[in-house]
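Hi R.,

Quick one: here's the Multidrug efflux pump Tap sequence you asked about.
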Amino acid sequence: MNRLRLLVLWLSTGTVSAASAAGFVAIPWFVLMTTGSAANVGVVTAAELVGMLLATALSGPLIDRVGPARTAPLADLAAALCIGAIPLAEATTGLTLWSLMSLAGAFGAFREPGQTARRVAVPELVGNAGVAMERGAGGMDAALRAGHLSGAPLAGGALALFDPPGVLWIATAVMGMSALLVAYAARGVSTSESEGTDTSEGFARRFAAGIGYLRRDRLITWIVVLLLLTNTLDLALTGVLLPTYSARILHDSLALGVLVGALGGAALTGNLLFTWLGARVRRRRMLFTFAFALGPIPPHLAMAAGAGFAVLFCVVVGCGLVAGMINPILAAVSYERIPAELRGRVLSLTTLVAQGGTPLGVLFGGLAVEGLGLRTTLTCTALLYLVALAIPLLGGGWREMNRPRTRSTVEDVVGGSTPHGGQELVDSSSPGCGRQA
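And here's the predicted structure, written out as tokens:
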């Protein structure tokens, strides 16, 4: 039964991820079809992203206070109501641009806490199921990737068969189904903060407790810094460099779609391989001598050398397989180290910081291509990856990634103790006390 709940959690994660990706496609299409304005599409999409970022920053204390078992299904249900309200309002009272922006922003704001709450529930469900943390983290990331990969194409196909309101109704139903799935999966997970924690603290002090944890745990802090740099470079690659290379060097828009799809599919496959084998490898060696070194850098070098489509496709597939192991390794470390009573706050903060540089990555990627040229920019980004990989040489407790991973250790971590090398973790009751890539 405990393993079934973990499997259902993975299924609900993939389901809500697919519904979110479908909404990210269907809502702009709905706006374009009903208003005919590309500017309105940009404004509504921006409102959804702003809502998502604000919720990422602020939802952590609420998740820790209420508990993932309550937060996740309620967030999914609220997101379903927001997306369903769009076609309902259009069919009844009509929609203004401001109401569209409000509903899109609310949709973005509600769906992110639901995903964070699922991650908060992972360590306890993994401990109850008696499986390795690597498998629990790998399964979550695989479900998330599978949902992202399938949601947008399914929405595109549905838009060819149904009108935009119909697709939004389908997304609403799928989001509602994910709420039911996660409600079942989270049964038995703690519904509130650890016993003995001062739950009367105000929001500001509770938020500060998450930031205080990030300041004290050097390994988690350095992981977030590393992800901030690499995620920024990743978005420059997929958002600017790869499309530009496909247009200027390969002269084929189809090649862009194939390469992006191959990269995502290979990363999902690599993720599944790590879910199967991850408990047998040493994390630090796998992460830095294999996954990071052989994952992101070779595609930049291949394009800088002017590789043709066939060579680049092989490089992208091979590197995607390796890069797919990065997220589960870092997620497993985070799940094991962060105390249960702080998990919602810290995970939401790490997600916010790790993704915070992605808009700058796209912006500076475009400026660099125009100012330095495409191949020079690709060489520079490869060098910047090497600089980022030098971060572990600065210290930061990276050796603690390889701590023993026994069942008793997992149970200790779920219980909120501090087994990793004896480092003391800050308690959320302390006054004045923060990936997926």
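The chain has 18 helices and no strands.

Cheers,
M.
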